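Predict the 3D structure for this chain.
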Amino acid sequence: MQMDTIVIPGLVLKETRYKESDRILTILTPELGVISASAQSSLRLKNKLFSACGLFCYSEFVLLPGRNMYTIREAEVRNVFHGISSTIEGMSLAMYLAEMAAALSPTGEEAAKELRLLLNCLYMISEGKTDLHVVKAVFELRTMSECGFLPQLVCCKICEKYDGPAFYLDPQEGILLCEDCAKKAGKICNLDMGALYALRHICLVEDKKIFAFKISVGSLAKLSAVAERYALTHLDKPLKSYDFLKSVLP
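Done. Predicted structure below.
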């Protein structure tokens, strides 16, 4: 192994095929953030890079830095989320989460947190143990919180009321208004108590407890709408995977 190579774990967010058997991969890594890497001949079945460079593979990569992108010298699989491809809904949600992570392109500590979150969410999709709408809302809210867009969730921005039957989360400003203050501001409440509790939990709890909450169907519908609007409001560009996801997972 050459001395100037880098050994690093990473999750394949996207693969672009070129030539007959090569791939250019978009990989989320904990230290380097989102990188592009060339995997030459990796589409040949007998090539040693074939399995470790697949979409949503979490692998350990040996990278050679180049002028525009890295070249993958070696790769070894750490985890493959086989269950993702078993449903069109799961696959389209995974594509959406991966595209959002790539668009945010976190670096440093934020990249490490993003990688842990995405691996956790892909595991949940793959195992089919959690409602996909829950996985989507968790990722949207947590990823925005960890990439510098943590909403102000403690209390009403105006009167400092902590709880109540209904609240409004402003998707642009990231502030909470209680029912009375929202009404005075001409806003219609978009959260009930269940959705507000889940919102606080998702954004503020430690990593390993992120899915440890219960929510009713009605509250989940409100949470899902708020999470999606909040995330898409703070992204610089629209996501190509969004329309297809909404067609299969309304």
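The CA atoms of residues 96 and 243 lie 10 Å apart.
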